[in-house]
Amino acid sequence: MNATLILVGATFLASLVEAVEALTIVLAVGLTHGWRTALLGVVAGSIALAVLVALLGPALSSVIRLDQLQVLIGALLLIFGLQWMRKAIQRAAGSRAMHDEAAIFEREVAELGRVPDPVKNDIDWNGFVVSFKGVFLEGLEVAFIVLTFGASRDNTFGPAVLGAVLAFVLVAVIGAVVHRPLARVPENSIKFVVGVLLVAFGTFWGGEGIGVEWSLGDLMIPILGALYFLVALAMVALLARTPRTRVAS
Amino acid sequence: MKYVVGFGAFWWDFIVGDSIVLAIGGLGVLALGALLVHGGYPGVAEVALPGIVIATLVGSLYQR
User: Fold this and answer.
1) Distance CA A40, CA B26 (A)
2) Is A209 domain-assigned?
3) How far apart are alpha carbons A222 and A65 in whole angstroms?
4) How do residues A142-166 score in pLDDT, each as one tens digit?
5) Which tens digits make up the pLDDT trace of A54-101?
6) Does residue A48 sit at the B interface (CB-CB below 8 Å)?
7) Chain A residue closest to B31 (CA)?
């Protein structure tokens, strides 16, 4: 039960971050190229993503043995989780620029604004491609997380899908109401927590896949999470004291 | 050919991102763990796995 709740929470938070990023791009397209163009990109991107997941999902779980699947899932979660943790640590320590949705929104609008104005109510294909890519690429990252989490729980995709759907619905509703990028979502903090969770799950499932029998069973997941969280905090403190070149977000 | 290169570049960016240390580390952790388990040291693997994960993360943070 606890593992299921952690799973729903992890996919919700991971999906929330990606949904906010996709929304920023879609809003920028909508304001510069019209809402028909932006929404057509959203629909096309969502359909392409659904087709890819429908093809990838069953193949993932039916072709590969459970222990092989656990190793594959563990490796993917470790790689994604470590990438998220690394960026979050660098941002918290001040050695990487913060991910600023408002600034990204302004940049997207400025870049899209250079494209010739579309005729009102016409579909602008430049805008469509930007909107499509935003939804498809951000969604693909979520799809990987949902598929790997679901497959590792004996192909029980419900909790992972629930977390992702809740996040996308929440962001879509807020986006429809405010028509502004969600700059107040503490994206870096969320990425920090999700990165830790992904790495903890990745270590646990990857370990089971290669034959490790965790002596504390499922209890190892929160223990690993707490260990990684403490290490990450220590690294933030250490890096903050080390003068380093700041890199872009 | 252009599409093949583009497809490869997309996946490279998706998996490797801006730190190859993490991509190698993510796979290396499990490879080293498997060697320990199948070499008769499953207890050591239980401790070594999180240790190597932490070493990979720290290494990537100091990567030039």
Assistant:
1) 38
2) yes
3) 26
4) 887 777 777 666 666 778 888 888 8
5) 777 666 666 667 677 778 878 888 988 899 899 999 988 888 777 666
6) no
7) A210
Q: Rounded CA gap, A227 and A231, in Å?
A: 6
ipTM score: 0.88
Lowest-pLDDT choice from A51-55, A119-123, A170-174, A229-233: A119-123
Question: Angle A220-241/A2-33 helices, nearest 10 degrees?
Answer: 50
A228 touches chain B (CB under 8 A): yes
**How big is chain A by its Cα radius of gyration, in Å?**
19
Count of domains for chain A: 1
A77-A83-A87 Cα angle (round to 5):
145
Using an 8 Å Cβ cutoff, are A102 and A24 in contact? no
Domain housing A180: 2-241
Two structure tokens written together for A140: 């693909």
Q: Hey, what amino acid is at A27? A: L
Asked whether residue A166 is domain-assigned, the answer is yes
Measured distance between the N- and C-terminal CA atoms of chain B, rounded to whole angstroms: 32
Answer yes or no: do A86 and B23 touch at CB < 8 A. no
Distances (CA, A) of A193 to A8, A150, A186: 14, 20, 11
* Token reading at A198: 């992904």
* Phi and psi torsions of A222, nearest 5°: -65, -30
Q: Of A75, A209, A213, which is closest to B26 when you measure between CB atoms? A: A75
User: Cα–Cα distance between A88 and A39 in angstroms, integer?
Assistant: 31
Instruction: Compute the nearest-CA separation of B46 from chain A (Å).
Output: 6
On the CB side of A159, how many CA atoms lie within 13 Å of its CA? 19
Dihedral in degrees, nearest 10, Cα atoms B55, B56, B60, B61: -40
pLDDT reported for residue A180: 65
A237, part of any domain: yes
- Nearest-CA neighbor of A186 among A57, A120, A98, A77? A98
Q: Does residue A248 form part of some domain? A: no
